[in-house]
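Practice problem: predict the structure.
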Amino acid sequence: MAHENDSFIREVNEELRSEQISRVWRAYRPFIIAGAALIVLGTAGYRGYEYWHSNNASQYGDQFLAALNLAKQNKTDEAIAALEKLEKDGSGAYPMLARMRAATLLSQKGDAAGAIKAFQQVAADSAIPAVLRDIAKMRAAYLMVDTSTYAQVAAEVEPMATGSHALRNSAREVLGLAAMKAGDTAKAKQWLEDIANDAQAPRNIANRAQILLDTLLSSAPPAAKS
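Answer:
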């Protein structure tokens, strides 16, 4: 009898729990369904974003390579137009890469002023990593040697020419070239010797600096050589 009572009590409890669950479901069903839908949509959205990001990265990479191929085929204007479109519509690092490459192509087609301006705009863009901004400054400075004063070149790169800056020897080289063009042999010699005395100077820059130093020495008056 006790066993039958226990069974009856369990059945009643189960019915009550079932009824409670039913009432909860009826009352909160819209919220439960909405919550589940949000989880599903959130997961689907994340996966969709991953696909979109991967697909677009591939798409923009293909566009960048296509522009480079146009440049290789000497279709410079078409390549610049493709890069400008990528700069406007692309995402990730591709717009910045497009800006840098377009500036280089302007230089190659003989538009030094346009290239200098483009590199300077990159250098002034705080959204771009500092190392790339410094490279843009350096590219502008090399182009400026032929068209600008020593002071203008120095304003671009002299802060990078001292200390332990990664581009210090490139900066010294361009400053040396600008000083030579300005006829300031002493200043040119100073910058080139800074390269020669830097054990960490890249070999190609060190070799060019030594050639320039030898040129300065051979062209100096006898009193200046001694």
